[in-house]
Amino acid sequence: MAPSTPSIATYHPLQRLSSPSRGISAAIHVAGIISFTLSYKYLIDFPTHINASYGWHWQYLTILGLTVAYATFVFGLLADLTLSPRLFLIKNTLSLCSAPLEVLISILYWGICMIDRTLVVPPEIHLAPLADFGFHAAPSILLVIDLLFLSPPWTINALPAMGLSSIIAVAYWAWVEQCYKHNGL
Questions:
Q1: Which of 51, 91, 119, 154 ranks highest by number of CB atoms within 10 Å?
Q2: Distance between CA atoms of 51 and 58, rounded to whole angstroms?
């Protein structure tokens, strides 16, 4: 008896590995969307002086990274459900931006916290441990799983990757300067 081949209804046509099913991919994307939604809910449920400042929480790289991660997983789930090559392309492109950014955010945040937590979280702001994990670890963990196991091989070379990183860095710098003009912090 010949082994059966997986049908297109069961497997992603563009995944790096053929073993994960659409269900596993969708479950990871749903888990990410739930985690990211709860992180945003935390910002609203436990307001600080940042909520009233110019740029809201988007003045921080953590929240900008969370936003791109959120978009990546929304497009990933839509691609899982529809098998649309265009949605896969959008998800995979966003993933190339969001995964390295979130890994950098996690490494910087937890590295600085090991030295002195007050350098990244002001003492007057209480951040629950689960929320801390949701902001500073879950996005990078979920995005790395998605990028390594549920995405096609990278299609970006070193020069375009450095250009993309430079554009993101300059855009963030300009945004931080804009927030500083209004907030002075």
A1: 91
A2: 10
Pair 46, 52: CB distance under 8 Å: no
Q: C-alpha 97: how far from its chain's center?
A: 9
Please name the residue that has the structure tokens 């929320």.
Answer: 131
SS3 call for 154: coil
Q: Which tokens sit at 71?
A: 């978009």
Contact between 140 and 106 (Cβ < 8 Å): yes
Confidence band (pLDDT; 50, 70, 90) for 1? very low
Closest among 35, 32, 9 to 22, alpha carbons compared: 9
pLDDT per position as a tens digit, 78-111: 999 998 989 988 898 888 889 999 999 999 999 9
